[in-house]
Amino acid sequence: MMKKDTKGDYGQGAERLNMDALSNAIDKASVISFDFFDTLFVRPLTHPEDAFDLLGIQFNIADFKAQRRKAQAEAFRQMTKDGRKEITLQNIYDKFPLPQHQRDAIQQAEYSLELELVQPNKELFPLFQQLVASEKTVVITSDMYFSANFFVDVLKRYGLEQVPLFISADRNATKRDSGELFDSVVSACGVVASQVLHIGDNYLADVQRPQERGLAAFHYVRDVAYLGDKKQCIATSMAQGLLNTDDAEKITPGTFQALGYQFGGPANFGFLHWITQQAKQDAVDVVLFVSRDGYALERLAKNYCADQLPEFHYFLGSRIAFNLALITEENFEQNIPFLLSGSVGLSPGELFERIGVCPPADAVLQNLGIDPQRRISIEDHEVLGQLMFGYRSEIMKVCSRNRRGLFMYLCQSGVKAGNKIALVDVGWNGTTQEAFELAVCPIIDIDVVGYYFCLADTPERQRRSRTLHMKAMVNKESTSSSIVDSVYENRVAVEMFFSAPHNTIIGYRPNGLSVEVVGDPGRAKATGHEQFNLAINEGIDMFAESFTQQQKRLNVSLTPLQTVAPIIELVSNAQWRTNPLIGQIENFDSWGSSRNQVVRFADYFTN
Q: Which of 156, 272, 390, 423 lies in the 20 to 30 Å Cα band around 189?
């Protein structure tokens, strides 16, 4: 977006300026001066100083950004003391309290990093090229501590190294302070000041100062969808920066695709690389990415790290399927609480539907004194438990079938006795892993380790950790107790980015030598679930591709925790709960879905 200068020569107001209006302004000038950074060229970061975070990662200096800022401030103080008007990159690194060889290495790395970061602004660069090819005099005027050599190195890539450069670091004059740098432009071009049009993004340096020197000025303001917060993590800056540049035309802001790109992409990509590290460390034989949490993880594994993982599969299963498979005649009664869990608000028949059992006829329920249309409350659990026990023969048919099918499915997935299996789940208390081990280990001798995005600090999880081998990427040791609590409290948001465009798997049906999975569509219509899941996963894939290329180009590799930070930032701020897009989602959890009620996202965290 280009805006007219509110005080400029070409009209009052801050309305948008179209390209025709800009062309008219250019026609009136003999010399066209472009600002460089954030005008002619942009960076795929939300804030320029985020580049310092990338350097800190490269050189493993945790507080590099703070050190770099301090050195620059000290360089400015020295500049003032020496009576100079601008600093250079060398001046900055002279103030670093590091050995000379290390300072030189980081200084060169910053130069190289900025070369790789800057890219043409698609809105202005074609116009710039057109003007250079015309009879107009075109120059670049920039306040920057890099010398002209940097700008020449950038422009060479586009065959534009002949463009005259007016760089503050070389000329000991600036735009921002008093506009003296514009005097150099006017003098070198041999024109009067009013014949020069300067275009730039900074109101003080690119509008006010040139006007004070008699030049014409246009205030250019990029129309970016993602402004960012200066306190945000580097992964968020990189993701939003890509959405503002490389992928701006591919992803529409305010869509599930954009949410998948910003949060689902970093969450899945970072978690996957943590899994890769752990699987190697634990000498895992087979990785099972359990549905639906593992849907994107398995796909990304195929595309980006198949050679770094042992055998792996997208394993169609769930806490429900594994719990049903573990139920036997001997333990049926102790598993009735599971069968009744999450049933408040459901009708009695829906208790059976959600486990794949044909419910008793209404007449049968009525004969037992149970109203088929009654909405279940906690007070009904005793009588419903008795109903479940009385109906156990039908339930056991499904449980036995699931157990046989699960065993066959494991064998078809390459799992053998003696294997070490990694069971991948997003979180939170180890219920899925516990059910899996109780169902599987009695029939096949395997060693199971659970890999989790986050494990909650709850008594339930603590109890399971004493008997189960469980590892979490986000835990109080790797982050903090408060972060773990925030992630767990807002787990429904995290789960949204680890979902799949298919129904929850509730069982298995052997069919000869093959196995069919049984899905649960839920009792209430889940409007648009497949569409929003597909859109989120499209965003995840696009992020992974762009982020991989970006890390390679910038010679930087974020750690898994650094990569997943955007989703931790998201759930650490309850503002996400008011997102209208997320508010559209209904009946996300099929286990608790009912024809009697519509469950919205807000209901999961409303007291």
A: 156
